[in-house]
Design a protein that fits this description.
The structure is a single chain. The chain contains two helices and 20 strands. The protein has about 260 residues and is an alpha+beta fold. The protein folds into two domains: about 100 residues, no CATH class; about 140 residues, no CATH class. The longest helix has about 35 residues.
């Protein structure tokens, strides 16, 4: 009986769905997090009577056939790259991107990763780094005697140096954007890496054409809607329970058939 196998694929699909939803909920307060959505597709069909086949020598066409499906499978878990809400932090090194773009982060192996989480710090040399100590590209060093640090919407970093009274430009924040943002590969630590699906990054300054702007003293929160996630969780749970009932029903039918043959 195929019903057992078909229902089991449904249970596995909903298990994946719940795992995706649970990860979204777990990261509701993660800066720059982008939620995922489980997408499904049906499996191959067994054609017992193929639609459109001839049913007589006179060329009569079968108007509808008999197809038995094989169940469901998880097709993808794409990331939804919509803008998250922006929250003030009053911390001068925190930055949020309003619009398109990613901060560029230099990894220890020399590669480049990308993030929407603008929770930055200064290391012992004054270089702008992430919470894990990874350098924000292009490298921006804030002098020890810098006062009144300001980051403009265009990413220009200025500060008053020493005893002077005039602000001096000490760096420029740059962003990267991709043709297919959903094609980026998440590697944890709020970081993404380029893939063949995402395409090569296009870099530029904030407020340039196609790029978002910088808001100093803010962070972008996760784009997770708690009401939507709970609603999806309940729907996934109900779907899992229904598939489990199919398994029990099919098992009872097979048991009845087995008893009849004794």
């Amino acid at each position: 009986m195929q019903a057992l196998y078909i229902a089991s694929t449904g249970m596995m699909a909903q298990e994946t769905n719940v795992e995706v939803i649970s990860n979204n909920i777990a990261n509701m307060r993660t800066a720059g997090f982008k939620k995922q959505r489980a997408e499904f597709q049906d499996l191959l069909y067994q054609n017992l009577r193929r639609v459109g086949a001839e049913t007589s020598e006179q060329g009569t066409i079968l108007p509808s056939g008999v197809q038995i499906g094989s169940g469901v499978m998880t097709a993808a878990t794409p990331r939804i790259m919509s803008q998250g809400s922006i929250q003030p932090t009053d911390k001068e090194l925190d930055m949020a991107i309003s619009g398109d773009g990613f901060f560029q982060i230099q990894l220890p192996d020399g590669g480049t990763a990308y993030t929407r989480a603008g929770t930055f710090e200064r290391d012992a040399t004054g270089t702008l780094v992430t919470a894990d100590g990874f350098t924000v590209e292009p490298g921006i060093t804030i002098p020890e005697n810098a006062r009144g640090l300001a980051i403009g919407v265009d990413g220009t970093v200025t500060a008053v140096l020493g005893t002077g009274g005039t602000a001096t430009t000490i760096g420029q924040v740059q962003l990267a954007r991709f043709i297919n943002q959903s094609g980026l590969q998440a590697i944890g630590d709020n970081l993404f890496t380029e893939t063949a699906s995402s395409g090569a990054p296009v870099t530029g300054n904030p407020t340039d054409e196609g790029f978002g702007s910088i808001r100093q003293g803010y962070i972008e929160l996760a784009n997770v809607n708690s009401v939507t996630e709970i609603s999806d969780l309940i729907a996934a749970q109900r779907a899992y329970e229904m598939n489990a009932r199919v398994v029990r029903a099919a098992d009872e039918m097979l048991s009845n058939t087995s008893q009849m043959m004794r």
